[in-house]
UniProtKB/TrEMBL annotation:
Pfam family, one: Amidohydro_1
Organism name: Brevundimonas intermedia
Record-given protein name: Xaa-Pro dipeptidase
PANTHER family documented for this protein: ALPHA-D-RIBOSE 1-METHYLPHOSPHONATE 5-TRIPHOSPHATE DIPHOSPHATASE (PTHR43135)
Signal peptide range in chain numbering: none
InterPro entries (UniProt xref): Amidohydro-rel (IPR006680), Metal-dep_hydrolase_composite (IPR011059), Metal_Hydrolase (IPR032466), Metallo-dep_Hydrolase (IPR051781), OTAase-like (IPR057744)
Entry superkingdom: Bacteria
The Amidohydrolase-related domain, residue ranges: 23-371
Length: 376
């Protein structure tokens, strides 16, 4: 991409796209999605009926929906290796319309923890449990190396329990401190950053002390967490939309969560706005991420209004989804800004998002790598 002064209207120079009446931004970045599925009343059944190939096809649908919402880059932080790596390559080859995908593949998890299969009969559990599940430092190093060998761009771990795992195991630390150290060190030695799903403060702080690069969710972070974030230069991806979504489902008349999921959703979801507010006030670096797949794909931009409710200015929220997320994901040379030499990832809306950040929920134009995918 190159940038020239003035308006170039010569058709001999290529197709002319006139966005003079629009507000133009770099393509947006969502640092936390799950493209190969979406929460619904049949989610648990889909775990045992959908093949990896089916999940890749489902992911193609949601990848297109995400792109049309203005997100030209995403980090997919938890999916079947075969499904998400195939989708990543199909998008890269131009066979499937979708955002640029940074893929973790299967999450590294403890046996029986968030990220492992839970809530099925014993023989089914063994069939569904991924290779990335581990116990003990040596086995956790093996899990990281297996993920890198399989094609992971980033290592995602589940440092604490999670809301949507169907087990009453709480939201606190699940990996031991030696396991966390082994994971982070082995990933860094192989050139991969490590991000951790973490709700409980014990798991957040233990992961940051182990040298982890970023925290997803961060629900119960405290003052010590904020100091560790700043000392380590680590990033927080608050996923406020996920917290808002699970709290609404769990407290609504059409709740489709299991009893274990419901209890954790009602506990964690309402706390996330205040968490993000305290982190922002404390100077923690925040990258935009939604956990879409929990909430609906294509609704990603609803996160902006929640970030503003948590105290970010509209500009800070937009920076979290552009230059901030690009720095967090270490892709600043290929995403997050409009500049000479960058891929032409450009989106536009009608109204001023610095005045009303919800304008970003009404995307009008999407270009990715110079190809126009949406022009309303």
């Amino acid at each position: 991409m190159e940038i020239r002064d003035g308006f170039v209207g010569d058709p001999s120079q290529g197709a002319v796209v006139n966005l003079r009446e629009s507000f133009v931004l770099p393509g947006l970045i969502d640092s936390h999605v799950h493209l190969t599925g979406q929460q619904n009343p049949n989610s648990r059944l889909e775990e045992v009926t959908q093949s990896d190939a089916t999940q890749a096809m489902v992911g193609a649908r949601y990848a297109r929906r995400t792109l049309m919402a203005g997100f030209t880059t995403v980090a997919d932080l938890g999916a079947s290796n075969e499904a998400i790596f195939a989708l990543r390559e199909a998008v890269k080859a131009g066979d499937v319309p979708g955002p640029r995908i940074i893929a973790a593949g299967s999450s590294v998890s403890i046996h029986g923890g968030h990220g492992d299969a839970n809530g099925f009969r014993e023989d089914v559990l063994h069939l569904l449990s991924p290779e990335s599940v581990c116990s003990g430092p040596e086995d956790c190093m093996r899990a990281v190396r297996t993920q890198v060998r399989s094609g992971a761009d980033i290592i995602k771990i589940t440092a604490t329990g999670g809301v949507l795992s169907n087990t009453a195991a709480g939201l606190n630390q699940q990996f031991s401190d030696p396991e966390l150290t082994a994971i982070v060190e082995s990933a860094h030695r192989m050139g991969r950053q490590v991000t951790a799903h973490a709700h409980g403060v014990d798991g957040i702080n233990a992961f940051l002390r182990a040298g982890g690069d970023s925290i997803e969710h961060g629900t119960y972070l405290d003052d010590q967490s904020i100091r560790l974030f700043k000392t380590n230069g680590a990033w927080l991806v608050p996923t406020l939309l996920a917290g808002d979504f699970v709290a609404r489902i769990a407290s609504g008349p059409n709740n489709f969560f299991t009893p274990a999921q419901t209890a954790k959703a009602l506990e964690a979801g309402p706390k996330m706005l205040d968490m993000a507010r305290r982190a922002h006030e404390g100077g923690v670096k925040i990258a935009f991420g939604t956990d879409s797949g929990v909430s609906a794909h294509g609704d990603n931009a609803q996160e902006f209004a929640l970030l503003v409710r948590a105290g970010l200015t509209p500009l800070e929220a937009i920076q979290a989804a552009t230059v901030g997320a690009a720095e967090h994901l270490r892709i600043a040379s290929e995403a997050g800004k409009i500049a000479p030499g960058m891929p032409a990832d450009i989106v536009a809306v009608t109204g001023d998002p610095l005045t009303d950040v919800t304008e970003l929920e009404r995307m009008k134009f999407v270009m990715k790598s110079g190809v126009v995918y949406r022009a309303d």
